[in-house]
Predict the structure.
Amino acid sequence: MGTETSGRQSDGGPDSELVAFRRDLHRHPEPAWCEFYTTARIVAELERRDLDAIHLGETIHGGQRRGVPEAETLAEWRDRALEAGADPDVIAEIGEGYTGAVAVAERGDGPVVGLRVDIDALPITESTTDDHVPAAEGFRSENEGYMHACGHDAHATFGLGVIDRVLDSGFDGTLKLFFQPGEEQVVGAEPMVASGLLDDVEYLFAAHVGLDHPTGEVIGGMDGFLAVSHLRADFAGEPSHAGGHPEQGRNAVQAAATAIQNLYAIPRHADGATRVNAGIVGGGTGTNIIPEEAFIEGEVRGETTALMEYTDEKAETVLQAAADMHEVDVETTRAGRAPSAESDQALVELVTETAAGVGVDSVVERDELGGSEDATYMMRAVQENGGLATYVGVGTDHPGGHHTATFDVAEASLDVGVDVLSEAVLRTAADPPVAE
Amino acid sequence: MGTETSGRQSDGGPDSELVAFRRDLHRHPEPAWCEFYTTARIVAELERRDLDAIHLGETIHGGQRRGVPEAETLAEWRDRALEAGADPDVIAEIGEGYTGAVAVAERGDGPVVGLRVDIDALPITESTTDDHVPAAEGFRSENEGYMHACGHDAHATFGLGVIDRVLDSGFDGTLKLFFQPGEEQVVGAEPMVASGLLDDVEYLFAAHVGLDHPTGEVIGGMDGFLAVSHLRADFAGEPSHAGGHPEQGRNAVQAAATAIQNLYAIPRHADGATRVNAGIVGGGTGTNIIPEEAFIEGEVRGETTALMEYTDEKAETVLQAAADMHEVDVETTRAGRAPSAESDQALVELVTETAAGVGVDSVVERDELGGSEDATYMMRAVQENGGLATYVGVGTDHPGGHHTATFDVAEASLDVGVDVLSEAVLRTAADPPVAE
Amino acid sequence: MGTETSGRQSDGGPDSELVAFRRDLHRHPEPAWCEFYTTARIVAELERRDLDAIHLGETIHGGQRRGVPEAETLAEWRDRALEAGADPDVIAEIGEGYTGAVAVAERGDGPVVGLRVDIDALPITESTTDDHVPAAEGFRSENEGYMHACGHDAHATFGLGVIDRVLDSGFDGTLKLFFQPGEEQVVGAEPMVASGLLDDVEYLFAAHVGLDHPTGEVIGGMDGFLAVSHLRADFAGEPSHAGGHPEQGRNAVQAAATAIQNLYAIPRHADGATRVNAGIVGGGTGTNIIPEEAFIEGEVRGETTALMEYTDEKAETVLQAAADMHEVDVETTRAGRAPSAESDQALVELVTETAAGVGVDSVVERDELGGSEDATYMMRAVQENGGLATYVGVGTDHPGGHHTATFDVAEASLDVGVDVLSEAVLRTAADPPVAE
Amino acid sequence: MGTETSGRQSDGGPDSELVAFRRDLHRHPEPAWCEFYTTARIVAELERRDLDAIHLGETIHGGQRRGVPEAETLAEWRDRALEAGADPDVIAEIGEGYTGAVAVAERGDGPVVGLRVDIDALPITESTTDDHVPAAEGFRSENEGYMHACGHDAHATFGLGVIDRVLDSGFDGTLKLFFQPGEEQVVGAEPMVASGLLDDVEYLFAAHVGLDHPTGEVIGGMDGFLAVSHLRADFAGEPSHAGGHPEQGRNAVQAAATAIQNLYAIPRHADGATRVNAGIVGGGTGTNIIPEEAFIEGEVRGETTALMEYTDEKAETVLQAAADMHEVDVETTRAGRAPSAESDQALVELVTETAAGVGVDSVVERDELGGSEDATYMMRAVQENGGLATYVGVGTDHPGGHHTATFDVAEASLDVGVDVLSEAVLRTAADPPVAE
């Protein structure tokens, strides 16, 4: 992706190189800590650009990473990436799933401005119908059962496009581009913050496509992030012959079923929205064996971190009591976790003015996300250091909802995102805003 | 296993060739319709013996086989069997899982006497502790996650031993030996009956080790077979973002949990014992996605076929209502199925007298199984044709219960089983009993 | 009821005085410990007979009585009895619900023979339809909401009829007639045994009408009594405004609902039948208040006392875990309780021979009750003292099942019961049987 | 309550006559449609004042009244009111529970200004501890099991106080005072609106004490009313003997328990808060009878009327499916119902300015109620006719939360409420605000 092709085309159509890049990522969706191909593909592009540093592997992940798959699973994804043509050197540096990359360009004495984009995909089987563009135009997922059903292929593309445009435009400052893994499981941001690479960032932009806003619409700052905590409960009972001695078993599936019913029934809270989901469940070994084991993988959310913690404590109580009821043991572990956060008004206004300036169809100042995002870790980290942060929405017409098999991104929104985000970075450096 | 080594050894220890054979099967446990290695190993032994026919493959399975795994799973087991040294010709004949074998020896004008043994294993991970003999003596399961936890390795061994002893002893009649697959999922007997190979059998013995009776004890006839029906329910809902739009999902896991709770709560019945088990369950795709799919694989049982059907109908009602409650669809399918049955008194007495005659430690006339068995299909088929049938118990000390990770067979009981069953076959041919 | 009218009538129709008495009791059904009218009515009859003792009130109840209603409820039933014409002296002696009576007649040196009949009714609203005889013939329940739906009105009538016939027939021995309260809640027999009045009883007959046997059929001994324990769980949480602060409540109704679902799902047992019932439940104070309290009154049963205790322990676990799950407190109390028991063969045979002798239509040696009965306390007490006991079935055509609104007794069975039971008492005294 | 005592006392203590009146009502709490004593007591006061009309009985209730208790219950409350000294003429006019009153004073050509106060109580047993002022000072509830636990005794007192003050102060306009019954069950406002008595009201004030605001604080307008719908489900199954024939019953309690668990688990909604409560439940007739009937009385709420209806539809689905699951019938009926509403800014500002003017400790412009209120029917009716409405909060220190046994009102807030509300009425008449 050379200088000569980046930027909005004269005919108004989407940049063909950005499109090709996005479609390549779309064909290779990878879940948390398994973004081997995706990382290698991004790094290949970064290496063609004039950057001061490209951080990779363990150095970009401080502290403990939650939810890393077993070695066997990592190996499968690693092999698949190599078969698909990933650079073996990059794969080696990623090692046991230290996916993602951080690119740095220093261009003068201006402030350090960060952009965070996420790169992972979801365990959803992509639609095969003709009215689903990726299927019709030949870039449907090649990793069956996984899919870019939340637009992170577009986000990574924003990242590349912004680098090109910013470096091309007399930028005075330091640009840090965070290609973050594992957002869907809210596990990727926390270790990236812990690595210290964000410590000097004074202004942070994060971005997301879609969110029920049409192509051509830009939202200055999203709020309403739900704090979230992923949890897993493993129930361990005792098997027995279901016909011969049902009374000798200790039934882990009954415990899990009791827990599921009561998890969804945790009391709502006066202080705001809460959520519970038993997203993945399983148990048992044979139809004629009283099930000795079962598990629930799920999550709790809250409009504030306190509300999330309220729900999390209730969930713990439910899981333990369900185990006690059926005389089985239960172990609960917490996986990914993210706090709530708010976009800073000064940066929100900078974005809305920028968006109006570059001529988008429609500008919205703020909207509510109503979901979770571990970008909030990064936003809070920057804010706690006295910096400013905002989470920008880039509208896109999407036929199916987020996290469904027919989700897709209108590629015209790629340029909109690059336009607005790069211009916002440039303005920030040129005229650094201060908190209101 | 040549003529010279069969029969009880002078030192009273178990026949070393029978032991070796049983241990080989024990190392290669295979589930229903996947008994490739087991079948090939049995056939290799049969071919060394003087038999009139060895039936294999499709010819021994009439009608439709229930619960056959997908082609990919069959292929995995097939490959594993070939790697373990199974005869490729036999494997080819088994094809898409037409496992099992029927051996026939015609020796004069006497009656047709059948013996049925089952050969499949269970999805249980075998114990690795030192006090578990197969682990300590090196014949623990090599198919990790599967185990002969119900003694079918011993049953197949009984079959071979009985052939040797009967053919060696001036038997006047026709012996038919049924090595039946898929008992644990109660799917193997029904198609074997439908093949017609049982039509001429006048007397049928089936046998089982253990059942909480010690080594050296023999039970003339087991009763109390619970009729059983395996069922699978697939719930199909609609996914949605668990944080952003919980109300847009239709939650298949909630439906399954509601069903599980109510399945176990189906009313008990005045007419006798009933059972329900939700043995294997699963659902969902991601922690942050409202689960769009879930399944329950389970079974219902009854002391009589009517009681099983009562429970089955209630289960159907529960599954449908649970789906309706959460606005998801459900499809239920029935897999294996077996009726109840009773042992015939004339044959029970023949066995108890035989057992007393060969000098076992203890003889019990009848006991209750309290479980299910698709041997009942064969028993009923023979009885409906005017023949007699019994289900013989051969005691064995077993450290862990049936269907647990520490189940094992005392090998001294191998000879006991062969002694009693072969002698019973010979007596039946010599002096055919009549129904009382 | 004088000598001149007792005994079977020449025309074969039922004894008109017995019928009148039974109908009077039928019109005044009373639940456990509230049998004020019933007791007074029985005592009025007893006083007209030549008895040596009529025991009443506290003296017939040793130890602690379970399940006694609150003083207010007792007072209501007491007033109702007085209004219906009960003798105030008897009512005074009954006091705080010490209902029931024991009549004694000593007639020589023969053995002490006991007959136990129960006298209480059920909280069922009696049918008003024309095909329900009590409604059509004007003796339907006058205590709306309560009904003799299990034939205890007939049992009390048997008691009177037997006294008349036995005393009229040269009986040599001591007759003890136990009119026992509170059988339906299995609370009446235990204190009566504790009073010591049964200590000298050498032979005990108990009797029940119906049980799905037709008029004119007699069963020598019932078995298959399920051991039973009644329990009550009181959940205590915390109320809160259901709209304003749902999270501040601790929801006792959710706890109870969770418990109910899991109580019915307690694993079935290989050793025999078990039962669970959450028979009466309630909770909450207002639609807009998170429910702070709830209760479950129920019972567990088992084919043996051990099976009942197994189920009772599981129930305790379920109730406690359900409370923990919703962070409420629970207190469980046990009310009535009865063990299993068996009828003695020697007495069973005496009854069947007697029944054949008096010319009933049909005689059955033994049958299974499949329910519970606290007569078992008395049977066990006599048996533990070296005596013999049997529980006699007296068939009666009953249109509706036991414990339903259309249950009724064919009055022709009153004489059958009196004939068989009185004759059995006389035979026992004349030729005391010994245990086999 | 004469002119000489109304108004704030010079010593700053609460008006003694208002206090006495409030305490009298507090001693006689009555639930919806049973406010016989309360109505009579209010009317007695109204009759001592110079009013143009006092409307009573059927004329103040148009359309159908929901949730009216059975005649027997009404009769009990009527008798209790008469015993407590209620005027028999008023009681006669109230008839079958047509409780409440509307007072009218016409004083010139100014606008019609309405004030709505509610007068009913809750089924809560009042605290007896010494630190509960009504218990300590002798005006605890005399209707055991019922309690003014939401301050409606204070509201009715506000009404009287406002009449006195307004009529005393040269008011130019028409004052309509609505003493509304049945707010707690949200049944009283709808028929009052249907009576037409609100049709000419141009400005409406409603008021509530407490709401977690301290004594001396006033809130100009409450918002965040949850729309609400009360519902009742009656399950009808079939009884059977729980020991003898559990399979013959159709268990209504199991159906209700399944419903309760799933009601609380209705999916949360992205658009805003929802609530569900199974507030009162019951079922069954005897511990040894499979329960033939059960009921749930509950409510659903939503931040908007649409969200309430979403939840209501889900509840309907759950109730029907729970019935189907246990093969019982269910009938659902809707009782009280109220929409959401918003306070008008012009009136909110008038109140806050008024409050500041009369010197309260603290003024809050708006707050969220987070509960339901059928005052919204009246507010919407006035607003739809082009008028303005606001729901004023009058803070009061309350030891226990609303709807708890230790709730109480600081009597100093009585004068605050009267001051602010009467002054607001006067200002409105003097200088009628217009919508912004």
The two ends of chain C are 38 Å apart (CA to CA).
